[in-house]
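Two quick folds needed for the group meeting slides. Do the first one here.
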Amino acid sequence: MEIVNINSVFNKSLTFVYKIILTNNFFAYFRVLVFFKFEFMNIDGLNEEERIRKAIKNKTWNEQMTNDSWSVFKMMSELVEGFETLSKLGPSVSIFGSARDTTSSPYYKLAEEIAYLLTKKGFGVITGGGPGIMEAANKGAHFAQGTSIGLNIDLPFEQAANPFIDQDKFINFNYFFIRKVMFMKYSQGYIVLPGGFGTLDELFEAITLIQTHKLVRFPIVMISKSYWEGLLNWIKERMLEEGKISLEDMDIFSVVDTPEEAVEIIDNFYNKYALRPNF
């Protein structure tokens, strides 16, 4: 039986991609990859115990190279689709928050109003594309007849795309880190409503990239002083007091209570630099 040399196959694949780039067919090729089903890393349908066992199971060299090689192509396909879809966006603001808030939640109503006001100012609205705060923000942008972008993620629960996203501005991701690249790259402001671990992940990603000068100092606005009070007190009393962060790092973000305050901070930033949304 012939043994497949995965390393050789991968090298030939990279050579093929290089030729495609030279002939200007790069985007077309990777658009096809977006719809290709990679089963090598598929863990859907497994319980937690089975997922752990699969993750730590010893693999042959060929199996490992197969997993890694095809994962690279899947990652590249998601990056290309994201760049191609979002590259023509005008100034847009990402709105983060919990997927678990219902339409009766005060935070849902806040998100909807913030998105509506931002859209009326000419900004696009980017969300994670799912329910809760994400749905509320896309809904506000949709009914303001503005640009409503959804960057959805495949999850076993919570995350189904909401119906208020522009069809030509909806992307479905498998990898969280690529999705976050799109949030950071194509947003010129971040509004963070109350949420859980995912919201904190997105918040601190933006703060860290600005702190380390990997991202332009676009405004970050946190909504609800009462919700964020405990976290901010801990940051001041532990991180700041122990010298883990600098005093000026506390200026990276603002905390407000109303939609008008949040939108004013975004708008003032643009007025300061004589920038205008171009939708």
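Then this one, please, same format:
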Amino acid sequence: MAQGIIRKVLNEQEKERERRQIEQGERPIDKLKKILNSETIQEHLQNVLRENANIFIASLIDLYQTEKTLQLCDPKAVVLEALKAASLKLPINRQLGFVYIVPFKDTKTNTYVPVFMLGYKGYIQLAMRTGAYKYINADVVYEGELEGYDKLTGEIKLNPSSRKSNRKIGYFAYIETLNGFRKTLYMTTEEIIEHAKRFSKSYGKESSIWATDFDSMAIKTVLKTLLSKYGIMSIEMQTAFTLEAPQENLIEQEEPEPKSETELEPEPITVNQEDNQPPHQEQQNIPLLPLDTTNKPDLKNN
């Protein structure tokens, strides 16, 4: 009973503090800065990011200031989602595309909730850090490019010069490790859409990420699926899969930020990582030829 009374008093104090903040006209960004300046958060970020801690904090403040809908979320919740990115040592700069903190509307509480989301570039970065991959590639397949499929070996034949139109018939991801293992996953556009309908309740909403940046979400879907089944499961990769929470009750994203042309049309990502290179080094783009696949493509579109 005593604990109940204490909890009630603490709740009343918290409400009174929030009321005074409103009366004093404290802005959401000011609340966020206070949280980030707290000793606990500062110590945590310094331990995890060390000399990059201040850059991370500046990026979060900039993100919060530029996204009005994110300011409708609880600042504490925003910081907690940002700490997930910090635990993976990934920047939250939206232009880089590694990590996003997206405000969704919780239909049960009718409040805005920040959600940590990894971009496909974030998954590529985590895979590179393992030092186990020779090639990583993910891209769009246009009508006419897909020329053949070997059911026995799983190899598909792509010919970019035979492209007939800008119609996107599918997406693929390809990995090859330094020990020679390689695997490709190809999914038709229809399969991607079915996947989105099944696992994302925000799909179909005009303001959802699927509507504003379908290509990036499709590439993320095929790459994440491939890595989860055949990729190297480092501690960081396992953590990434765990941190991306399912959006069962979050079905609407409000006022998304406009996308640039480069975001709407993502370029193919290819990574070459040799034995004598540290995993953290940036790699050069190297083109890939015949790929293995475990999914039979739909050749009727060609």
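Slide caption for protein two: The radius of gyration is 22 Å.
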